[in-house]
Amino acid sequence: MFSSLRKLFQSEPDPREARRPLWDAVVATARAPHWYAQGTVPDTLDGRFDMVSLILALVLHRIDEHPGQALAGVQLTELFVNDMDGQMRQIGFGDMVVGKQVGRMMSALGGRLGAYRAADGSAELREALIRNLWRGNAPSEAGLAHVLAEVAALRAALAATPVSELVVAGRLDGARA
């Protein structure tokens, strides 16, 4: 009897938690001071969301290169949604607003997933970064150059990391802290 009751109240571990180290690495990379200091990305709620979206998009692009790891990409995206939901609730958004805001954030992430596929150094990537990180207001050339160089370095580091290692170890080797 007790074993039946125990099973009833025992919850299975959330499989998404296996991606927690990778999600934490995405957030830590996005919060690295150099993006905001040398890169001149606005250090605001919007700017932080924009940086998380950029880093997450680059990581998801890498995971997409290995179809066998598709579930890891889904789980990572679900952690993004859960974290954004929690952040908005912590700020004080009510239930009626949170769902709409999360929908907007997912739409923004979807658009950025497409835009950030542009090649390093390309005019398309420059335009996408200006549009998304600086909300269309041209940054200083030094700031934009810094972000472009760091994006290229992160892509190279991700490309050199086996996807199976990336999704298990959850490290973004080569990302500046």
How many beta-strand elements?
0
- How helix-rich are the residues, as a percent range? over 70%
Radius of gyration: 18 Å
Arithmetic mean pLDDT: 87
What is the terminal separation in angstroms? 52 Å
Question: How many separate domains?
Answer: 1
Helix and strand element order: HHHHHHHHH
The shape is globular
Tally of contiguous helical segments = 9
The major β-sheet equals: none
Report on the structure:
The longest helix has 22 residues, at 70-91. This protein has helices spanning 2-9, 20-30, 33-37, 45-64, 70-91, 95-115, 123-133, 141-160, 163-169. It contains nine helices and no strands. Helix 2 crosses helix 4, helix 4 runs parallel beside helix 8 and helix 5 (70-91) crosses helix 6. The protein is an all-alpha fold and 177 residues long. The chain has one domain (16-169). The chain starts with a helix and ends in an 8-residue tail after the last helix.
How do you describe this structure in short?
71% of the residues lie in helices and 0% in strands.
Keywords:
177 residues; globular; mainly alpha
Protein topology:
Elements: H1 2-9, H2 20-30, H3 33-37, H4 45-64, H5 70-91, H6 95-115, H7 123-133, H8 141-160, H9 163-169
Helix pairs in contact: 2-4, 4-5, 4-6, 4-8, 5-6
Family: Belongs to the UPF0174 family.
Protein name: CBP3 protein
